[in-house]
Amino acid sequence: MPIFNYRVRDRKGNPVEGRIEAPTLEVAGDQLHHLGYLPIELEEVKGEAFHLPDFWNRWKKIKLEELIVFSQQLSTLYKAGLPLLTGLESLKEQTENPLFKKILTNVCRDIQEGSSLYMALSKHPQAFSTIYVNMIRVGETSGRLGESLDRFITLAERELKTRQRIKEAIRYPKIVVLSLLIAFGVLITFVIPRFAGIFAQFKTPLPLPTRIMIQINTLFQQYWYLILLFFLGIPFLLSHYLRTTQGRALWHKIRIKIPLFGSLFQKIALSKFAYTFVMLYKSGIPILQSLEITSPTVEDTLLEASIGFIQKKVREGKSFTEALRETKRFTPLVIQMVSVGESSGTLDEMFLRITEYYDMEIENSIKRLSTYIEPALTLVLGVAVLFLALAVFLPWWNLASLFRG
């Protein structure tokens, strides 16, 4: 991902310099704007000498689990009355991840030079997201840094739990598919070629399943390098394309049409939007700014467009409820709950209930997914095993018939 040098001014007019990673110059400018900076100069870093560790670090990210542990420890130390810099120095010494240790070293240095915590963290987007930095900024300004850290921990743990539930749902299919591929590879590499040699001596026609396996074996032997290039190159090119704006938009349009999975993806994105928004709103960030910060975190370009539409309508003077209704992305129940929250001044409480509603829907969708996937996989597994068994045993039956004849 490209790196940009920037010179900006913070809200107090103080000059700030640093580097930021972003897909494009426009995205880098937007990220700096979200952090409360006024960009003065922004240019892409080019022509630097190649340095392997730096190149490798560009592709590395701080794991969410590491960030949760760091935030928990920092919150505990802060609430215990330990000075912020002392706490960060202590956490830096305990950190085992070299990249994270280097980042914390830079953060400590910036704070020693008079920078605020949120300004120091904002220079390292590969570790601290826009949401994290903005929640820290609100907590630091209001004197409730511990509460802001706790809110982020709750948000991050919830996202981690959702990821784990999805991994558990697809674990069984992955094991089945991997087992089939291994069995298929062993047969076409070691078993089927031996049959071909034996039957060639007797000049006996092979059964169709066995002939298919032999042809596949021949194809792999003659064009293995092209097949290897295909299986390595296609995922790489596809991954690169999906990182582009056009690729992400296309994938998000396709995935919502996938049977069973499409509705699950939508519910996960809506749940993430609702919970992230309410955490920012409860931290004291205004509605429009909370929407602006939440938009790029939902990982769904269609929902991002809907959030942008909501922002536009709210700026024009429409109520939050009316803006939600016009997007046609939310159920009548959700819109009714937002309407009650907006009119009664309990919008944060209602959004928490909306999150609970979507979480329940996600749980039910995952259960339905497991219910449908297991029979389908059993059928696929049965057909595959039958085909492989016929490819192996039919030649022996034919050979036995030949000897009897």
Describe the protein's architecture and organization:
- This protein is elongated.
- The longest helix has 58 residues, at 145-202.
- With 405 residues, it is mainly alpha-helical.
- The chain has helices at residues 25-34, 52-59, 64-79, 84-94, 98-112, 117-121, 130-142, 145-202, 208-242, 245-255, 261-282, 287-294, 301-315, 320-327, 332-344, 347-404; strands at residues 3-9, 15-21, 38-44.
- Helix 4 (84-94) runs antiparallel to helix 5 and helix 7 runs antiparallel to helix 8 (145-202).
- A hairpin with a 5-residue loop joins strand 1 (3-9) and strand 2 (15-21).
- The protein folds into two domains: 1-56, Ubiquitin-like (UB roll); 165-405, Type II secretion system (T2SS), domain F (Receptor-associated Protein).
- The termini are far apart.
- It has a three-stranded antiparallel β-sheet, covered by helices on one side.
- It contains 16 helices and three strands.
Low-confidence stretches: 48-56
Compute the separation of the termini in Å: 70 Å
Question: What structural class results from the helix and strand content?
Answer: mainly alpha
* Amount of beta strand: 5-15%
Tell me the series of helices and strands, N- to C-terminal: EEHEHHHHHHHHHHHHHHH
Determine the number of helices (DSSP H or I, runs of at least 4 residues): 16
For this structure, the CATH topology of the largest domain is Receptor-associated Protein
